[in-house]
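Quick one, T. Sequence first:
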Amino acid sequence: MTLISVVIPSYNHELYIQHAVESVLDQSYKNLELIVIDDGSKDSSLSYLRSVNDSRYTLIEQKNTGAHNAINKGLSIAKGECLAILNSDDVFYPDRLVECLKRLQNGADLVASWIEVIDDKGKKRGVKEGWHNMLPWSITTPKSKFSTIDDFTLNLLMTNFVSTTSNIVFTRRLYERTGGMRNLRFVHDWDYLLRAARNFRCELIDKPLLKYRTHQTNTISSNRAWMLFEICWIYAVHLKHFTGKLFPHHIGANNLSEKNDFLAKSINTQGNDKVMWMLLQYFDECEVIGREAPAETLLDDECLRSAFIRHISS
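Structure tokens:
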């Protein structure tokens, strides 16, 4: 029976962490392990986490190093053939792992689902149906966007419709080839999904299997300029890897105009095209002089990163 490993990165979510943990341990699928990485919580989270008594449960406490590092720590020690992540303020539906495992066993390497959006009190605010609704910006010409096409990867290029690391379940072979999360504060999940989509089959389950909680302390609300910079970084890093999908080799002149329209109206840097082009130029220059991994270096260098963020129009 397939072992599924679930990793919860926990940080100062004393109001929600018990709901998250119980939603994993109470899954209808029982052959699982739950690894909680407490990333230096200062509230009462640890009191609860230390009290959990289940043979499938492991708690690791560490100093605060950020969500992506906490996730990577958990994934690095996970033993499962399939891997899942749950943020400490979100909740799995009882049959989530069963439903996702079916898809993985039928050939997918990564699956996500529709999500039920809830507020800080757990009240339902709506259901996000993948790329079909609740997009992060308004659609002025809906017939000319990727969202009209039933294609996981194209829609992933338009926006992170998966919405959260809590909404991905994937195979070990994908993890071993793709690696872990990179040092992105707001879009490490989107970056991971695009890296996975280059080489693996990704699918969306068309029913909600996750409760995604919105509240005032969500990371996405903390620094808009930094978030917009990371969106530009995503496009500067990833678009080139999907040229064959955006512009197939057999495309004719008659179809090029339509392809350009779809691309122009689907890729949205929120008015920060100039920063994306600055990033592209910077990466090209680094390649010319032989500097290794400039995209990752930029994320780790606060001074260098700030040189781009200061040009963001938020």
